[in-house]
Amino acid sequence: MESPFVTDCWQIIELFSKLETLRFADFVQVWKETRFVYLQGVGQDEYQQREILVQLFSTASAYLSDCFPVNVRVAALYLLYALYNTQTHEPSVQIRLVPEMWIKLEELHMQLRNEGHCDADYIACKLKQDKALRLTATPTQLSLGNWGGDIGERALVGFIHSHILSDESCLLLQVLDSDNISQVQSALVAYQQVKLNNSSLLPSGMLRPSTVAKELHYIKENYLSWRNQGIVTTPEVDTVQASSVPSARQRIVEKAFSSDTTSSLRRKKRKSSTASSKSGKS
Fold first, then answer.
1. Residue 142 and residue 93: Cα distance in Å, rounded?
2. Are residues 160 and 209 in the same domain?
3. pTM of this prediction?
4. Would 280 be classed as within a structural domain?
5. Per the domain annotation, does 278 fall within a domain?
6. Given 166, 190, 212, which residue is the final one in a domain?
7. Domain boundary at 111, 136, 166, which?
C-alpha cells in the first residue's frame, strides 16, 4: 500500500531540487517554509505519531535510489536527517533501510565525498555516528499475520555475507595474522623463561605452560570455518586444568575426611566415652 505521505515528501524534495544547490542551509529554509515538522505532531497518541514517523522515513528513503538525480537523492538525505533530529520520541525511532537501499546510500555518500560536497558528506556521517540508520530485512516492522515469507530475511543474510563476511581484510584476520601470533608466542616464551629463572620465588602452579598463541590460532580457524562452512572446531588445549590443582579449601576438606583423620577422630571419641563412663560409676 502506498504511503499517504508521498505527496508531502515529494513536495519538499522537489522544492529543494529546483534550487539547484546541495547546501544544507537552503534545505533548512525550504523545511521552514513548508512547515514540514508539524507532520510529526499528527496523531491521537504517541503510538500513532511513531507510526507516522516510520512511514515518513520509509517514503523519504525511497528517493535515495540511484534512479533519481543527485539533487533529489541529497534532498531525501537531508529530509531523513531533519525528521530524525526533530522527533520527540524516547528512545528515538530509527531509519529502517533494507540492504539494497543501504548500498545505494553508501554509494551516494562516497560520490558526494569525492565531489567535495561537504554539507551532504557531514549529514551522512552524522546519521551513521548517531546510529540513526538501522539495517533491516524489510522496510517496515512485521507483526503476527503480516509475514509474507522469508524473502526479506534471506536478502538480509545474503547482504551480510556478500558485503561483510566476504571482506578478506576484516579486522579479526588482521589482528590474528600469522606474524602477530608468532610475535605473541615469542613474547610468551620469553616471559616463561623469566618465570623459570625465578622459579624459587614463585608459588607452585605459576609455571604452567601458556597456550595463548595456540588458542588465538584456533579462534582464527573457527572464524574461517564459520565463514566458509559454518563449522566450528574445538581447540585441544594441552594445559593443566585448574580443577586438577587442589585449592587450599579442597586440601582441608580432603584432610578432614581422609582415613587417617577419621581413625584419629574415632579413637578420641572412644577415649572420651570411656572417661565419661568411669566418672559416672564413681
1. 16
2. no
3. 0.53
4. no
5. no
6. 166
7. 166
Q: Does 270 reside within a domain?
A: no
Across the chain, where does the E strand assignment appear?
A: 95-97, 133-135
Output DSSP code: residue 38: G
Domain that holds residue 201: 172-256
Q: Which three cell numbers stand for residue 222?
A: 573457527
DSSP bridge pairs for 133: 95
pLDDT in tens, 183-217: 777 777 777 777 666 666 655 555 555 566 677 67
Which regions of 117-222 does DSSP assign to beta strands (E)? 133-135
Asked if 132 and 92 count as a contact pair (C-beta separation under 8 A), the reply is yes
User: How many other C-beta atoms can be found within 10 angstroms of the C-beta atom of residue 39?
Assistant: 18
Whether residues 15 and 150 fall in one domain: yes
Q: What is the grid cell recorded at 188?
A: 610468551
Pair 108, 64: CB distance under 8 Å:
yes
Q: Are 211 and 239 a contacting pair, CB within 8 Å? A: yes
